[in-house]
Design a protein that fits this description.
Protein name: DMT family transporter
Number of strands: 0
Helix content: over 70%
Keywords: Membrane, Transmembrane, Transmembrane helix
Strand content: under 5%
Order of helices and strands: HHHH
Largest sheet: none
InterPro entries: YdcZ
Pfam family, one: DMT_YdcZ
């Protein structure tokens, strides 16, 4: 079930990048990011209210874990900027390649409190295939 959900996430991300990029084209990059995050804030607030969830922060959470929102602002900004020049498929493909590299590094070293999962050299074959696909996309 989680694998099906992961595919669904991929579909949603493609839709999100498209909608965000088109909005950014109408209102500008920075105002677009602001609108996107305000709508996101309102949406999650309504979900929390509807589900009657309390805002309860634990005291022992490392401060760096709160940086995800700032990372999200940069993510949406760069997606919107790249969308205009590269289109959806290339923006997402290059972004997923970057995510793959970062996730392997995070897993291998156990950064950000993650469990260590050492790099398996067989994964190099997958990275090479992805890289070949990206080169083909860039050239054609």
């Amino acid at each position: 079930m989680y694998k099906v959900n992961a595919v669904f996430i991929g579909l949603l991300i493609a839709i999100m990048v498209t909608v965000n990029g088109v909005l950014s084209g109408h209102v500008g990059d920075y105002l677009g990011v602001l609108i996107i995050h305000i709508v996101g804030f309102v949406s999650i607030s309504l979900i929390l209210i509807f589900r009657k969830k309390k805002f309860d922060l634990k005291k022992d959470i490392p401060i760096y874990l709160f940086s995800g929102g700032a990372v999200g602002v940069f993510l949406v900004s760069f997606n919107n900027i790249c969308f205009k020049e590269l289109g959806v498929s290339l923006t997402l493909s290059l972004g997923l390649f970057g995510q793959s590299i970062a996730s392997v590094i995070i897993d291998h070293f156990g950064f950000l409190g993650m469990e260590v999962n050492k790099f398996n050299s067989k994964k190099i074959i997958g990275f090479i295939l992805i890289l070949v696909g990206l080169i083909i996309m860039l050239v054609y």
